[in-house]
Structures are given as structure tokens and as C-alpha cells.
Amino acid sequence: MAFSVQDRTALITGAGSETDNPRGINFSFAKLLLESGCNVLIADLTLRSEAKALVEKYDRGSPRAIFQETDVRDWLQLERMFEVAEREFGEVDIVCPGAGVYEPHWSNFWRPPGSAPSGDARDGGRYALVDINITHPIRSSQLAIAHFLKHRKRDQPKHLIHISSIAGQVSAMAAPMYVASKHAISGFVRSLGKLERLGIRVTAVAPGVIKTPLWTEHPEKMQMINESADEWVTPEEVAEVMLALIQQDSVSEIIGDRSGKGRQYQITGGTILEVSKTVREVAAVNDPGPGGRPGNSVSHQSAVEEESFQLLREEGWGGAKD
């Protein structure tokens, strides 16, 4: 199932607007693929400065990058990004439905629909976070599998790589919908593991605390971080592991602790790799969890949990507003 990404094509959601400085995971993955000779279609709402510069750098020749404006909550726009990729590149070999949000105030369990500053309407019948973090990767996977089967060739495997999180292995009162979404993605990826029989490998990464705008642009999240004690995992480190999931059949080269020791794992469909300052496979059952490894923990999570209790103490929490 492993292959070189050279001369292949990838479709990535969320690589355009998540980043400026510092970089985000999807942007770093797109950049790494392009540097490795892989065409990339970036599907996102917009291109911020660094993503725009990346597309301009690779706007012609081979490899090539293109941008397709896409709201991942809109199923027709998800279909359109595949149509554009097929028109521009012929076929897609790698799909990463990576767009996601970390329980922002505008779609937040502790700020119910209809309350400020929630953007979820009381009569809307849906949460934006669920649409982005769960429904969009599920629908994108359906479209990817249909595309892969349409272009199926025995000697050309296909890869569908998702972004889960250590939040899919733990609980966190501060972000219960985000945690639920990442538990969902991990279960979804494992459930599709047997697609490898059809030449389609479905895998995921489960990053720890990543220094991306999902954290740095949200003061309510940053108060959980103790900069002198907590270690960040970089988006580039996660992107390297994502590339390894595609190009390698074994993760023996990237698994291990700082002493250089580590187990060897075979990459198969359904594999989920936790990425902190070390990398390990997340077991489907009886997994010990992320533990206190560098890059996995935050020192002040209780501060944001206390905000949730403060909101619950407000009179009429969650009730209808006039």
C-alpha cells in the first residue's frame, strides 16, 4: 500500500484559512507534499497570506497547487472540489478532510444556540462544529471512496488520511463537543480499515497540543497553556508523520522515545498514530491514553473548566431567549 507521493495528487481541506503565522497542520501537510513532488488542491473558505504565497509558488509546472473556494459544511461544494481536482489533475490519490475547529465560542456546548456569542441558531437544527468536524469528513470520505473506485488500478493504491486528536482518547469538560467529534473520527477511521482490500488505506493522526491558530488565536484556550512548562508539537512534525503513513508500510523509523528505543508497528488500514514529541500507535481497545508525554498536556485546563461552571451559574442558562 505504501508509495511515493511523487507525481501524485492530493486534495486537502482546511489548508488555506487556518494559517498565517504560525502554520497549521493542513497547510504544513500541503507544503510538504508539494516539496515532495505531489500536486495539491487546497479546498477552503479563503487563502491567508502564507497559503496564498504557497499556491502562487506552485501555480504552474509540476508539481502544481490550486485553490478551490469551499465551505466544507456545504455538500455540493464538497462534490465540486472533487470535480475540479479531476478536471485539473485527472485523478486524486490522497484525500485529507482536515478542516476542523476547536469548540469556538460561536459553536460551543457551554454557549447554547441562541445565546451570545453562539452562531448556532435556535431553529437551525444543527451545530456548526459537528458539521465541520464530523459531517464534513464523513461526506468527504464517501466522495473520496467513490472517486478512488472510479479510478481504481491494481498498482496504484489510494490514501484517505484524517486528523483526529488526543481528545479522541480522553475527556475534557472545557470542550465536550470537540472531544466527541474526535472520538467519532477515530471510530470512523477504524471502521473503514478493511477498505485496504480494495486498495484504499484509511488512517489518521492524533496530535497532542499543536501550536496552530486553533490555539494561538483563541485567548480562552491559551490560558490553559503554561509556556514555561508545556511543550508544543509543531504542525511540521505532524505533517511528517502523515507523509510516513502514506509512503511507508512500517513506522519503525518514526516510533520511539527520546532514548531512541521503541516498538515497531506495521501500518495497515485503521491505523491511528498519536503525535506528541514521540509517536505511537493508538490501540483500539485498552489503550493507556496519551499520558503525560511532552506535547500532550496543558497545565491550566481547570481555568477553562471553571468558565463553564460560571456560565452554568448564570440565571436561565440554556433556556429560550426573548
How does this model look, in words?
This protein is α/β, with parallel strands linked by helices. The chain has a single domain (9-313), classed as NAD(P)-binding Rossmann-like Domain (Rossmann fold), CATH 3.40.50.720. It has nine helices and eight strands. Strands 3-2-1-4-5-6-7-8 form an eight-stranded mixed beta sheet, sandwiched between helices. α1 (25-35) links the parallel β1 (9-13) and β2. It comes from Penicillium diatomitis. Keywords: NADP, Oxidoreductase. This is Short-chain dehydrogenase/reductase SDR. Residues 312-322 have a biased composition (Basic and acidic residues). Pfam families: adh_short.
SSE topology string: EHEHEHEHEHEHHHEEH
The CATH H-level superfamily is NAD(P)-binding Rossmann-like Domain
The N- and C-terminal alpha carbons lie at a distance of 57 Å
Helix content: 25-40%
Shape: globular
Mean pLDDT: 88
CATH class reads Alpha Beta
* Arrangement of strands in the largest sheet: 3-2-1-4-5-6-7-8
List keywords for this structure.
34% helix, 8-stranded mixed sheet, alpha/beta, 322 residues, Rossmann fold, 9 helices, single chain
